[in-house]
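Our consortium's second objective concerns turning raw sequence data into structural hypotheses that experimental partners can test. To show how far this objective has progressed, the report includes one record in full. It was chosen at random from the queue rather than selected for favorable results. The single chain below, 179 residues long, was entered without modification.
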Amino acid sequence: PAPLRDAVRVALRARADPDEAVVETLSAQAGPSRLEGQARARRDGTRWATSADLRLAGFDLSQWLPGEPGAAWRRARNALNGHVTLDARLPAAFDGVPALLGALDGRLEAHLSDSVLAGQPLALALKAQAEAGRLSADGEARAGDNVAGLALALRAPRPADRHGPAAVAGDERLQLRLD
């Protein structure tokens, strides 16, 4: 990382046991650049219930990520403002990706606004949801004059049975738009 320009404060308060992991407080601050979060994962029988919340205020990635100190993106302004939230339930045992996708239930939201990355204005809105083997996501990112959009709808494959390979529902959709 580039040399820090401000005093740095990092705080983490967490606890864990075989059935629960909790990040009560995660905080990183360097001058006006702040990241704050918390998370929890609790085992409930055959499933894990997870939640997380991350907030960014003027967060400058160049102060925290490794890389060439003289890189152009490090010399430009970087300030991320937004939040990410996660609320999901998933199987406690991993039995392959199709089974995981079929059992996943929850939502993820990410928003960035009034942000700047490598000197370019940046905005992001993403919502993803999983329920009963269906996964969907809609999002849009804007960086400078560039826009990328995402629309996704998937159904997790059903397990193979004695009559043949895994079945897929056929209502899948993936749309990516770049302007």
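The partners drew two points from this record. The two ends are 32 Å apart (CA to CA). The beta strands are 8-17, 20-30, 33-44, 47-59, 80-91, 105-117, 120-131, 134-143, 146-155, 173-178. Both points have been shared with the crystallography group to help prioritize constructs.
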